[in-house]
C-alpha cells in the first residue's frame, strides 16, 4: 500500500478455524451454516436481521425450490483458510496480522462445552501463529458461558501462549452486558495479565428499529453501518457509567470501528452526566472524565473508511491521539463484489487512503515519509500496534 519502510499491521482481521465451522454446520439455530440450491458456497448466517430470509430460504428448499434471496453471506475459503489469509496479506502488503475469532465467538456454547472448545480454538490460533512465526499474533476467545473459575483459568492459560496479545470480547459479557459487576474479577484478571480487550459488536440493535422495509430492501447496510457502531458505543458507555475504568485502572481496551460513535458523542455523554439529577444526588458520577478514559485506557481501530471519522477518533483520543489509533481491515468481511476476491479489496484500500487523508499526507517520497505527517501515518498503519501490542518475536526462521 506504500507506507515506506514502516511495518503495516492489521489488528482487526478475523478467522473461523475449520473446527468452528463444523460447530456452525451442526447447529439448527443461529449462528449456523447452511447450504441451499443455487448457491455454490454454503451460507454463513450470523445476525438476527438474517432470520426472516433464513426462514424463507429454508421453506423454499423444503419445497424443492431454489430460494430467490439467500440469507447471510457466502462462506468462502477466506473465512477459514490460513493460506488465504496469507495471500490477502501479501496482496495488500500487510506485514503482520493480529487475528481473532469472528463473531459471535463462543457466546452460544453451553457452560459445559465452552471451556474445552475455547481451549481447542485458542490452540488452533496459537498453532497458526507458530507456523507463520512473527507474521501472525492473535486475540484469544474466552469461554464466557462457563463458570467463573473456568473463565479465569482460560485467561491464565492464554496469557502464557507466546503469540497471544489479548482477548476478543463481545458486548454481552456474561449475558448482562459489560457493566455487570460479575465481570469485575475478569476485567481485573485481564488487566493483571496485561491482555488487551478487543471489543467487537455482534448483536446490533433490535430488528424493529430498522422498519418494515429493511429485510427486503436494504440488505445488511443498516445493521452493519449503524447497528454495530451503536452497540459498541452503548456497551462502552455502560462500562464507563458503572465505573469500570475507575475500578480497573490498568484495563486496556481496543474498540472496533473507531469506537462506534464514541468519539463523536463523548462530549454529549459528558454533558448528560454533568446535568443528571440522579447521578448528582446519588454521587455516582464516574471519577475519570470520558476524555481521560479515551486518552489513557482506550485504543481505537481505524476501520471507519473515511478521514472524517478518523479525525474525530484522533481528536477524541487526547493530545497524542494519533498514537492510539491502529489500522485494520475486517477481513474476511466486506469482500469486493464486482471483482476477483483474490485481488485488491476496496474495504482495505479505503481504510489506508483514509489514514493518509486524515493526516493531510499525500507523499510517497523518502523525505515526505520523514515528515511529521508521514510519521503519524506510519504509526497508525503499524508502528502503534507494534509498540502497544509488543508485536516482536525473536527466533523466527
Ligand atoms: N459482519 C460481521 O458479522 N462481523 C464483522 O466483523 C463484520 C461484518
Ligand atoms: Zn470485525
Automatic annotation (TrEMBL):
The keyword Lyase applies. Keywords: Decarboxylase, Lyase. GO terms for cellular component: cytosol. It holds the Pfam family Amidohydro_2. Residues 116-389 form the Amidohydrolase-related domain. The keyword Metal-binding does not apply. SUPFAM superfamilies: Metallo-dependent hydrolases. One of its GO terms (biological process) is secondary metabolic process. One of its GO terms (molecular function) is carboxy-lyase activity. It comes from the Eukaryota. Belongs to the metallo-dependent hydrolases superfamily. This is Amidohydrolase-related domain-containing protein. The lineage of its organism: Eukaryota, Fungi, Dikarya, Ascomycota, Pezizomycotina.
